[in-house]
Specification:
Number of domains: 2
Distance between the termini: 46 Å
Number of strands: 0
Helix content: 55-70%
Largest sheet: none
Order of helices and strands: HHHHHHHHHHHHHHH
Length: 273
C-alpha cells in the first residue's frame, strides 16, 4: 500500500526534516494552529526561513498562540535576515507601522526594496506607494511609476491598477486601458468600482479605447498594449497556487497603505485591502 502524501510529510517532520516540519505545520494550520506553530518553530530553529516567517504570522494573528507583535516582528526579522522575501515584506510592514518594533519608515523602505528585488510583487507596489507619497524617502513620481510598472508586470492587481492610473494621468490611454482591465479582472469589488469610476471620469465606454476596458466586466479580455511582453503563461506563473503562495503564507500583515492610488481629482481611492 502506498503512503499518502500527508503521511509522508508527517513522517519527514517527525524525523527532523525542516522542510517536512514546515509543510506538516502548513497542513495542520487550519484545524490545529497550536500544533502547526509547534512545527513551524522546530523548522525555524533548524534554519528554515519560510518557517520563521510563518512563526511570525502565527504570533501576529493569534494562530494557536496569543497575539504577540514583538515576537512576530522578531520572527519576521529573522526570516528577512535569512533572505526570505515574505519575511522581508512582513518585517517592512512591522517597521512601517511600528508594530512590535519602533516605527522606522526608512528601514521599512529598505526591506520593501529587498523583497521587491527578489520579485515580490506586493513589495514592488508598496515601493511605488512610498515613492509616490514620500513615505520614508523623498517623493519621486518617476520611481513610483517604475515600481508600479514592475508590480503590474509581475501580475499583482493593485500594482496593475496603480500603474494604469499613472499611465492614464500621463495620457497613455490605450496602455492604461489594458492594465486597468487586468486589474479589474483579477481584483476585488473595490478595484472594479475604482475602474468603473475611471471609466465614467475619463470618457466612459463610448470611446473605442474605453470600450476595451469595459469588456473586463462582461468577461472579455483586453488586448495587450503594443510592445507588451506579458504573456498569459507568465501571468499564470506569477499567480501560482504553490505552497509558497498560499493565503496563509502570503496574506500581508497590514493592507491600508496597499490600497490603490488614483489620478488626482477622483476623491478617496478604493480600499484595495
Amino acid at each position: 500500500m502506498s503512503m499518502s502524501a500527508a503521511a509522508f510529510v508527517r513522517m519527514a517532520a517527525e524525523h527532523g526534516v525542516p522542510l517536512g516540519q514546515l509543510r506538516w505545520g502548513a497542513m495542520l494550520l487550519e484545524n490545529d494552529p497550536a500544533m502547526a506553530l509547534h512545527w513551524f518553530i522546530l523548522a525555524a530553529r533548524a534554519g528554515n526561513a519560510e518557517a520563521m516567517n510563518m512563526a511570525g504570522r502565527c504570533h501576529e494573528n493569534g494562530w494557536g498562540v496569543p497575539v504577540d507583535l514583538e515576537r512576530a516582528a522578531d520572527w519576521f526579522h529573522r526570516s528577512a535576515q535569512a533572505g526570505h522575501d515574505w519575511g522581508e515584506y512582513n518585517y517592512a510592514n512591522a517597521l512601517f507601522d511600528g508594530r512590535g518594533v519602533p516605527c522606522d519608515r526608512r528601514q521599512a523602505l529598505l526591506y520593501y526594496r529587498r523583497a521587491a528585488d527578489r520579485g515580490h510583487s506586493r513589495a514592488m507596489n508598496l515601493l511605488g506607494r512610498c515613492y509616490e507619497q514620500g513615505w520614508g524617502c523623498a517623493a519621486n513620481r518617476d520611481f513610483a511609476a517604475i515600481w508600479y510598472g514592475r508590480s503590474a508586470a509581475a501580475g499583482y492587481f493593485r500594482g496593475q491598477y496603480n500603474h494604469g492610473c499613472r499611465l492614464l494621468e500621463d495620457g497613455h490611454i490605450a496602455e492604461a486601458t489594458y492594465w486597468l482591465a487586468e486589474a479589474a479582472a483579477e481584483g476585488d469589488d473595490a478595484i472594479r468600482r475604482g475602474v468603473e469610476r475611471l471609466l465614467a471620469t475619463y470618457g466612459g465606454p463610448q470611446t473605442p479605447s474605453m470600450m476595451t476596458m469595459s469588456s473586463c466586466f462582461s468577461g472579455g479580455a483586453s488586448p495587450a498594449p503594443s510592445g507588451s511582453s506579458l504573456r498569459s503563461s507568465e501571468r499564470d506563473a506569477s499567480r501560482s497556487s504553490s505552497y509558497r503562495g498560499t493565503a496563509y503564507i502570503s496574506s500581508p500583515s497590514h493592507r491600508d497603505r496597499d490600497r490603490c492610488a488614483q489620478p488626482s481629482g477622483l476623491g478617496v481611492p478604493p480600499d484595495c485591502g
